[in-house]
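Entry 14. Ran structure prediction on the chain below.
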Amino acid sequence: MFEAVIFDWDGTLADTRKAILVSFHKALSQAHCDISDEFIERRIGIGAAETFREILRVQNVWFDDVLIRKLVDLKIQAEIDLSDEIKLFPGATELLEILQGKVKLGLASMNNRQVIDHLLKTTNTKRFFDVVLTAEEVSKPKPSPEGFLKCALKLAIKPKNCVVVEDSIFGVEAAKSAEMGCIAVLTGVYSRSEVKKAKPDVIVDSLKETDSVHKFIFE
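Output, structure tokens:
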């Protein structure tokens, strides 16, 4: 039995894909730069700053830390402006209600604090989490295990007694590197075969599969 469950946010608990794409494109327009939706989608989870760096490198656009900070700030505000369009995935609230009080609950997201705090408020989910960790507290993005390990430390639970719920291959790899259990949910942009290669302990199609999730956590 695990003592804590650590959730990712984007693509795992909340369907933020459209808002993320629009906010990235809006910010990039200020740098007179564009990139495909797929390029952005397959980097959701590594953090906005790192995503902007990768985009600008690929597009051969000069940048420095000042520009990256400006782009991140633009992306944050744009995503907050689109918050009414962001919904929790089916089964998310029900699963959190099932788990609350039975295990400690953490949220470890590579999105920014302003965005996460705002969305936790608008979705009425802040009440579920004992710890909320965001990109500002992490120096190395996923697949580094740093974020999950810091979350476990804040929860005062040993990594081996934590299970991570993730949608991205970066997140699954980070969870396994942290030596935590991992449930992968196929609500992100990755196929089952792609996710399977990252070797999660359990794969579910959605958070509505509460029996499978519950069984892995509590057995």
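The mean pLDDT is 96. Will compare against last week's run tomorrow.
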